[in-house]
Each structure stands twice: as structure tokens, then as C-alpha cells.
């Protein structure tokens, strides 16, 4: 999900909450008006409402895949390829921001040859294939610790990795993949790493070829991971001072403000136009909005609960712009929960619960029109909202939901507790493994800090209660972290349902396939959903260039309900000072390119 949730992880990454990390004291004292020549801190600086990133190593790690980490990482360390979805570029590769030319495909689609552009590290050393090889050695030897790894995917699907010279390398895959899928969803993971500075297994070790062997690569990876977990040294550790991105880290306060400074030796063509970017976290929507109204930040967001004040912000010199995402939003179900997983296994129950979520009304009323229904796993084209499916498979229909439950052996007790009265696997029974007297009672683990999310679940809870389905809503700061993929025997598997979609649950890479989300054993399949037909359809999208493959996958999962589809909000309703240029278009894959920003 670059959730910002697990992907961009989810990078995009699972869009998880954005600005929720600092104490209220910061929000209270973060006032200040606009300066004469620029923003709240002058013409060379921009302040941005932004959750404090907590992962700096440009290799994704489980539990650290939130979107703010992906944006932070890209500011410091450029990926081999960057992408855009405007339909103008081959394989969606952004020719300006990418560090390599588009791949040359041969051998019936199995071999991709890639040539690096001329780029340097911040210490003046050239970026070469040695840095690509270093990344490959680390992720190959440590794939079990890499959040982007899925069995059978990269690097398991590489038959041969060959470095030809300092500028050129080739990848030969085990099978002939759909090139668009492989370029967009596999090559997007490659990030050159400074081998000359990082290839060591301790702070005092000489830099050399330690990572060239699996054992050495594991030691180097452990050293780098330990450093990445030491947040208090982010702005002092020499490791992080060698980078390839347009920005360098000037100041980092754990759970607090982060200051990025323009990298004077940046070799990309998209050079920063500002001197500094200050990333400022807030405890909640209300805290952020109070400071925004006071003119204390240059780029923030308007919470759904405050959309009515849009005109007031415009009168204060802000431009208001919805940030549409290449994303979907959903409520995760834990199929492996030892108590309630057997209930989620029943398709009719998932259907009934979906019919009790009034997506259109919630989108319009609670999200103030800044959300649209999610109907399936394939998102709509950026900027249109909703999904590409022609309407949702299950519309809001409490009467039909009640009929489904009663026809499967449940005694529906409105505003009470519905229980199973007919255990068994027959046509009019509750289903395999559901015992007599089993209640329909679940706990939803959700995010704190989002007023619209709180109101949304109050509405859903009310609708469920009308059919005797009892929901307990538990809000936590990071719902991803406390609802992991798990085995039924593990203590951590006690969660029922999880929501982390206040800004979109999952932001896709350029090709919107589902191997990381809904395939059996997928890295971001937190609910452990598994269906052989879904696996087959997902695999087909990876090998077939026919657009019908993606549609077939979407249509099946739209009906099978691996999750409950939820209203998909815009990532945020951005508010930025009208004198701030280069903010738009806002990237639908949820990256922020601060180097494009400048003051008039």
C-alpha cells in the first residue's frame, strides 16, 4: 500500500496518515504570517504539513512503507526510473527524472538492456552499474527482510543479471513477461546505492566488496538497517550524507520537524529552485487546519470537515486543489483470525456487509464530495475518482443484506446481537466452521487524527447495528503497524478488520496489477486473502499485454470481495500559497517533487 500505506509500499506505497506525529505544543506555537517576498519562512523556504518520515534507507522494510517515507526517500535517493501517467512516455517512464534510458527489449521479451545516464553522487563520484549491482546483491541476499519482496517476483524471476560495463547492464527473466508490467512494477524497485560509501559491515570497517558474497551482503544489510533505525542520528551519520537526490538532510527531529536543503551537487536536470523545505507534522486534522488558517504553513491540506471554509482560505491567499490518487481504499478483513476468520470466509457474509456501506452518501456527505466509491481493485484514470468498473457489484441495500443473512441461518436481531441459528454447510446454513450461537461482532482498528474517518465509521457502525452486526471502533495512531499479516496461532492475529485509508489505502505503481495486494502470500495482503482463481487472473496480467486481462482481474475481485470496498478520498485537498509555483500537477502516484517548487 505507498499507503501511504504498505507499498508505494503498501510505494506507495498504502497511503497511511500524513500529518500525525508531533505534540500539540508545536501546533500551538506554529503561527506566523506570510513574509513580504515568500512564504511563512521567507522566499527561499517552504513549510509543508507532513508526517515525520521514519525510514531513510532506500530499500523498503516491513512496517516502514508509509507514503511519507517514500517521498522522503525519493528526495534523497533517486530511483533508477521515475514514472508519469499522462500517456506521453514509453512504458510510463519519465524521461526527465529517470536515471537511465528506457530499456531495450530483446530475446522475445525476456531480456532488457539498460543504459545509465551521466549522474554523480553528492561527493562527486559517478553513479555506475557498480551501484546497481550493490543494490541487487543486498536485496537478493536479504529478500526475506525486504518489504517489496514476493515469492516468485523480483529477484526470483531473474534468470541472469549481467553487468556489461560502467554504464550498461542487462536483465534476463525466467519467462517472457508483459513488458509494461515488468518495467512499471518490477524495475520501479531498483535504486542505485553508493557502493563506495556503504559497502561495509560496521561504522569503522573499510569500504570494499563485502556485499559481493551472500554472507557479506547480509552483514552489510544488517549494518545499514541498524543505522536506518537510529533516527536520532539521521542528520549526523556520514552514511546519509552521500546521496543522489535533489535534496540533502539538514535537520531531523524524531517525531518532529525535518529540514531538507537543496543539494548543490545534484546532477539531475530537475534542480531545486528553493533553498530549503521544512516538513512539519501535526497531531490531528484540527491542529493542522488551525495553523493553516493562521498562515503558519505554505503547503497544507483542508480536512473534509473544513471544506466549507475553502473560500476563507482563498481570501487569505491560498490556492485549493484536490490531489487525486492512482489508488483504491478498502477495509481489510483478517481471514486468519482464529475466531472471526471463519466468518470472513463466507462470501455471503462479505456481500451482506458490503451492502451496508453506503459509499455514495458517505462520499458526498461525510467526505464533502472529496471521495468517490471504490468498486474494485483497479483504480480509475487519475483525476476521475472511483474505479474503472462500470458501477459497483454491490450497492447499498440493507434489505437484501438482511435477506442474505436470514437465508443462511442467522437470526437477525435489529439493534441487538445477530447470531448463527443453523450451523452447518447446507444451502440454508451459516457455513463451514461457524458454530451455533456465533455472534456477528467485530472490532475495527482505524486511524486517529481524521475527523471524516471517525464520522464515517460511526455511520457504518449505525447501519451494521440495524441488522445486529456489532462493530467496536478502536482508533490507533498507526493501524498498519498493529494489524500485520499473521498466522492463526500468533498472538498478533487477534485483529478483525483494519482501516488505513483516510488518504487512500493503496497507491499503485504505474501498472495497477494486484500481485502485491491480493495474491496468496502477497507482501501487503495483510488479511491473508487467498483464492486460486484470483491468483490465476493476477498472474495473467503479468504475462499478457491484452487489456482484457486487467479487466477480468478487476471484475472477479470486485465481486469476490477480498476486502470491503470503501469511499476513496482524494489524497488530500491541498492548500498552498498562491505565490507558490510548480506544485501542480500533483503526482497521482503520490510523490512530491519539491525541486519543482518556487516562489513567484
List the helices and strands and how they pair.
Blueprint: H1 6-9, H2 24-29, E1 45-49, H3 67-76, E2 104-106, E3 111-115, H4 129-141, E4 158-163, E5 168-173, H5 179-185, H6 195-198, H7 214-229, E6 247-252, E7 258-262, E8 276-280, H8 285-293, E9 299-301, H9 310-315, E10 318-323, E11 327-328, E12 330-333, H10 341-344, H11 347-354, H12 359-366, E13 371-372, H13 398-407, E14 410-411, E15 419-420, E16 441-447, H14 451-465, E17 470-476, E18 497-499, E19 506-507, H15 532-543, H16 547-560, E20 564-565, E21 568-569, E22 572-577, E23 580-581, E24 598-599
Parallel strand pairs: 1-8, 16-17, 16-18
Antiparallel strand pairs: 2-3, 3-5, 4-5, 6-7, 7-8, 9-22, 10-22, 11-19, 12-18, 12-20, 13-21, 14-15, 23-24
Helix pairs in contact: 4-7, 11-13, 15-16
Structural class: alpha+beta
Largest beta sheet, briefly? Answer: 5 strands, mixed
Number of strands: 24
Q: What is the number of helices? A: 16
List low-pLDDT spans: 1-37, 385-390
Distance between the termini: 36 Å
Shape: globular
Family: Belongs to the bacterial solute-binding protein 5 family.
Keywords: Signal, Transport
Organism: Micromonospora sonneratiae
InterPro entries: Peptide/Ni-bd (IPR030678), SBP_5 (IPR039424), SBP_5_dom (IPR000914)
Describe this structure as you would to a colleague.
The structure is a single chain. By secondary structure, the chain is of the alpha+beta class. 24% of the residues lie in helices and 16% in strands. The chain is built from 16 helices and 24 strands. The strands form eight sheets. Strands 17-16-18-12-20 form a five-stranded mixed sheet. The protein has a four-stranded mixed sheet with strand order 1-8-7-6, with no helix packed on it. Strand 4 and strand 5 form a beta hairpin. Helix 11 packs antiparallel against helix 13 and helix 15 runs antiparallel to helix 16. The longest helix is centred in the middle third of the chain and has 16 residues. The radius of gyration is 24 Å and the shape is globular. Belongs to the bacterial solute-binding protein 5 family. Its main location: other. This is Peptide ABC transporter substrate-binding protein. Keywords: Signal, Transport. It is found in: Cell envelope.
Amino acid at each position: 500500500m505507498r499507503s501511504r500505506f504498505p507499498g508505494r509500499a503498501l510505494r506507495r506505497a498504502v497511503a497511511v496518515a500524513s500529518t500525525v506525529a508531533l505534540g500539540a505544543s508545536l501546533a500551538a506555537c506554529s503561527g506566523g504570517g506570510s513574509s513580504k517576498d515568500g512564504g511563512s519562512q521567507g522566499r527561499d523556504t517552504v513549510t509543508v504539513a507532513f508526517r515525520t518520515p521514519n525510514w531513510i534507507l532506500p530499500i523498503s522494510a516491513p512496517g516502514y512503507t508509509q507514503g511519507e517515507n517514500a517521498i522522503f526517500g525519493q528526495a534523497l535517493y533517486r530511483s533508477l526510473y521515475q514514472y508519469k501517467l499522462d500517456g506521453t512516455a514509453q512504458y510510463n517512464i519519465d524521461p526527465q527524472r529517470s536515471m537511465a534510458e528506457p530499456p531495450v527489449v530483446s530475446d522475445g521479451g525476456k531480456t532488457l538492456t539498460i543504459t545509465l545516464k551521466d549522474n554523480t553522487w553528492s561527493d562527486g563520484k559517478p553513479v555506475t552499474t557498480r551501484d546497481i549491482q550493490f543494490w541487487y546483491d543486498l536485496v537478493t541476499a536479504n529478500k526475506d527482510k525486504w518489504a517489496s519482496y514476493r515469492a516468485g517476483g523480483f529477484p526470483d524471476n531473474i534468470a541472469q543479471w549481467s553487468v556489461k560495463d560502467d554504464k550498461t547492464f542487462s536483465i534476463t527473466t525466467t519467462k517472457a513477461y508483459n513488458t509494461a508490467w515488468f518495467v512499471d512494477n518490477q524495475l520501479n524497485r531498483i535504486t542505485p546505492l553508493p557502493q563506495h560509501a556503504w559497502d561495509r559491515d560496521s561504522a569503522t570497517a573499510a569500504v570494499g566488496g563485502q556485499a559481493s558474497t551472500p554472507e557479506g551482503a547480509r552483514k552489510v544489510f544488517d549494518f545499514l538497517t541498524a543505522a536506518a533505525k537510529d533516527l536520532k542520528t539521521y542528520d549526523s551519520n556520514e552514511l546519509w550524507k552521500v546521496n543522489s537526490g535533489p535534496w540533502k538532510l539538514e535537520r531531523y527531529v524524531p517525531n518532529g520537524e525535518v529540514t531538507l536543503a537543496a543539494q548543490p551537487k545534484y546532477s539531475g536536470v530537475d534542480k531545486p529552485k528553493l533553498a530549503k523545505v521544512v516538513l512539519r507534522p501535526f497531531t490531528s486534522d484540527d491542529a493542522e487546519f488551525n495553523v493553516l488558517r493562521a498562515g503558519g504553513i505554505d503547503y497544507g491540506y483542508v480536512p473534509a470537515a473544513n471544506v466549507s471554509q475553502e473560500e476563507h482560505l482563498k481570501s487569505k491567499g491560498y490556492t485549493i486543489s484536490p490531489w487525486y490518487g492512482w489508488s483504491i481504499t478498502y477495509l481489510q478483513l483478517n481471514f486468519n483470525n482464529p475466531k472471526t476468520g471463519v466468518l470472513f470466509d463466507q462470501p455471503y457474509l462479505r456481500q451482506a456487509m458490503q451492502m451496508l456501506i453506503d459509499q455514495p452518501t458517505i462520499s458526498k456527505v461525510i467526505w464533502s464530495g472529496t471521495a468517490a466509491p471504490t468498486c474494485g481493485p483497479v483504480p480509475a484514470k487519475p483525476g476521475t475518482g472511483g474505479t474503472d468498473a462500470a458501477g459497483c457489484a454491490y450497492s447499498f441495500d440493507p434489505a437484501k443484506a438482511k435477506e442474505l443473512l436470514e437465508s443462511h441461518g442467522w437470526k437477525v436481531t435489529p439493534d441487538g446481537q445477530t447470531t448463527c441459528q443453523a450451523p452447518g454447510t447446507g444451502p440454508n446454513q451459516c457455513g463451514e466452521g461457524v458454530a451455533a450461537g456465533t455472534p456477528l461482532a467485530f472490532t475495527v482498528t482505524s486511524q486517529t487524527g481524521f475527523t471524516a474517518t471517525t464520522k464515517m465509521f460511526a455511520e457504518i457502525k449505525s447501519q451494521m447495528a440495524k441488522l445486529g452486526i456489532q462493530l467496536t471502533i478502536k482508533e490507533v495512531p498507526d493501524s498498519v503497524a498493529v494489524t500485520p499479516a499473521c498466522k492463526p496461532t500468533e498472538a498478533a492475529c487477534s485483529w478483525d478488520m483494519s482501516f488505513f485509508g483516510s488518504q487512500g489505502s493503496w497507491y499503485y505503481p504505474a501498472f495497477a496489477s494486484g500481485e502485491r495486494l491480493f495474491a496468496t502470500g502477497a507482501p501487503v495482503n495483510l488479511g491473508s486473502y487467498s483464492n486460486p482463481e484470483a491468483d490465476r487472473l493476477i498472474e495473467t496480467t503479468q504475462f499478457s499485454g491484452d487489456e482484457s486481462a486487467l479487466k477480468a482481474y478487476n471484475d472477479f475481485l470486485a465481486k469476490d470481495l477480498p476486502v470491503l470496498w470503501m469511499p476513496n478520498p482524494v489524497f488530500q485537498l491541498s492548500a498552498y500559497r498562491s505565490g507558490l509555483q510548480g506544485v501542480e500537477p500533483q503526482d497521482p502516484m503520490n510523490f512530491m517533487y519539491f525541486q519543482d517548487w518556487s516562489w513567484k
